[in-house]
Each structure stands twice: as structure tokens, then as C-alpha cells.
Amino acid sequence: MPTRLKIAIQKSGRLYEDSLKLLKDCGIDLKNGINKLKTEAENFPMEVFFLRDDDIPQYVEDAVADIGIVGENVILEKNKKVTVCEKLGFGKCRLSVAVGRNEPYDDCRFLHHKKIATTYPVLVEKFLKENKIEAEIHEISGSVEIAPGIGLADAIVDLVSSGSTLFMNGLKEVETILHSEAVLIRHPKLGQEQQEILEKLLFRLRSVRKAKHTKYILLNAPNERLKEITALLPGMKSPTVLPLAEAGWSSVHSVVNEDQFWEIIEKLKAAGAQGILVVPIEKMIL
Ligand code: ATP
Ligand code: MG
Asked: Of 95, 96, 91, 51, whose CA–CA distance to 71 is shortest?
């Protein structure tokens, strides 16, 4: 049987949809079987295991899976021998300390000799140590946000994205311990063939991710301002410039980064560019 790269992704939960979408955007179609635990790709040498996110680092350390998609928070908590090879840009959240809305929290010394409920005991322990605070950690496996309300803890450390769960439970976020997003992890030593498949996957993944942050831009420029306008648009090599049917005008095509996008548009307009069109890019091969 030909070698396949085995990837572990979350079975259900917050990373499930985005992990599947990432594979799809990389042109990888999965077989729709009845087996909910594993499947394979139709058009790429890949096998997919569906697991609880907590178990993914262990499976990758043990080489049961070659690679996996999991939150950085889980990687740091579990301390397994795996290598992070790429940030994936989804599953963004933070690990934060929260206390009752009316608690007088000024800084983390508030936590001294208090009870803290969390599913992240290792990360909380580290945070307390760094800040020279002694506190009691209560490890619980879920619904951490109700712990203060039922008298189980004075504070919690939990994952937050919008903060609405904390708010609904009468809590306020007072300190951020860690920022996290989904990452692709790999076993530190892959076989030659697995390594080659991983490189193919990473190449596709980077092309997709790069394209997401980049736009294709087309505009009309009066020839006498062309130099100024093209200087604003570096492009992949340099902008494409084509003459328009109307004398004295050119069409300029280029790519721009999303983070500089509005700034560049304003400068282009000020430099006399007209009819500016902005188009999404599906993939970007560098
Ligand atoms: P599983 O059944 O796989 O163990 P889970 O309940 O532990 O699932 P989810 O709540 O689905 O996990 O979260 C999975 C990951 O999504 C987290 O480890 C984290 O990296 C990320 N995440 C993003 N935003 C949030 C959030 N607001 N709350 C919790 N996790 C978040
Ligand atoms: Mg979990």
C-alpha cells in the first residue's frame, strides 16, 4: 500500500469545521464514509483520524498520527515531544483569569491563597510561579465558568474568545496568561515519504494562507502619474502595466497585502488612480 500521511484533527468542537475547511482549501477531498473515527483523502495520500483535541499531542508524539491540528494552549499544557510547524490563523482565543464581577481585583496578587478552578493546571501553575503567588489549583474537566458561582473557587482560568460566557456567569476577565490559535504539529522524526507528503501539504497550506491576506488590485492611471502610482504597488515582482484604448491612460495590475490595503488605496487615489477594482485571490504560488 502506498504511504499516507496520517493527520489527527478534532472529532467535533471548535476546531473541527475550520480544520476540514483548511484541507478542502488545499484541494484535499475526504471520502464520506460511515466511519466517524477515520477516513482517507480521495486525491491526496492522506489518512484522517478524528480525535478529542486533548489526545492529539500524545498521538503525534507516539507517531500514531504523523501530524495534527490542535490549539497552542493544548500543546503548551500537555508538554509532549511534538514540533509546531505552522500557525493556522483560526481557533484564536486567550487563556485568561476571571473573577466575580464585583471582586476588587487590582493585580494578580489578588490570587494569593485563593482557589483557582481550571482545565489548564500546568499553565496556571507556571503563571503562579512566575508571579510568585501561592494558590490552590482545582483541576476540573469542564464548565469552569460556574465554579465561582457554586462556591468551588474564588477565580477561574479558562479560554475566552468574545467573553460572553464569562459575562453571562457574572465574571470579569482580569488577566491574560496566553494568546492561542490552532497550529499544525508534527512528529519530530518522520519517515522520508511522510516528510515529502508533509512538504506538499505545507506548500499548499502556505499558498492558501498567503492568498487570504492578499488582494489583486486593478486600476486606471493617467500616464503622467504612472511612475508615482507603480511605486506604491510593489506587486509580486513589479506591477503589470498595459495601455488602455484611450490614449494617455494605462491599466495597472498588482497585489497588495491586506494590512496595508486601505493606506495604499488612499495614496493611489491621491496620486490620480481611477476605477480601482479589488479582487480576492484564491491561491498564491510563490
Ligand atoms: P474535545 O471534545 O475535543 O476535548 P473541547 O471541549 O476540549 O473538545 P473545544 O471547546 O471544542 O474543546 O475547543 C477546542 C479548541 O478551540 C481549544 O483548545 C482552543 O484552542 C480553541 N478555542 C477557540 N476559542 C475558544 C473558546 N472561546 N473557548 C474554548 N476554546 C476555544
Ligand atoms: Mg478537549
From this structure: 91
| Residue 10 beta carbon below 6 angstroms from any ligand 1 atom | yes
| Residues of the chain with confidence (pLDDT) below 70 | 34
For residue 103, give the C-alpha cell: 471582586
**pTM (two decimals):** 0.89
What confidence score (pLDDT) does residue 34 get?
65
Mutate to test the pocket of ligand 1, among 59, 93, 139, 158 (most ligand atoms within 8 A of CB): 93
- For 18-50, give one letter per residue: b (16+ CB within 10 A) or e: bbbebbebbebebeeeeeeeebebeebbbbbbb
Grid cell listed for 262: 486601505
Judge if the beta carbon of residue 123 lies within 6 A of ligand 1: no
The three cell numbers locating residue 60 = 503525534
Residue nearest to atom 1 of ligand 1 (CA): 52
Tell whether ligand 1 has an atom less than 6 A from the beta carbon of residue 154.
Answer: no
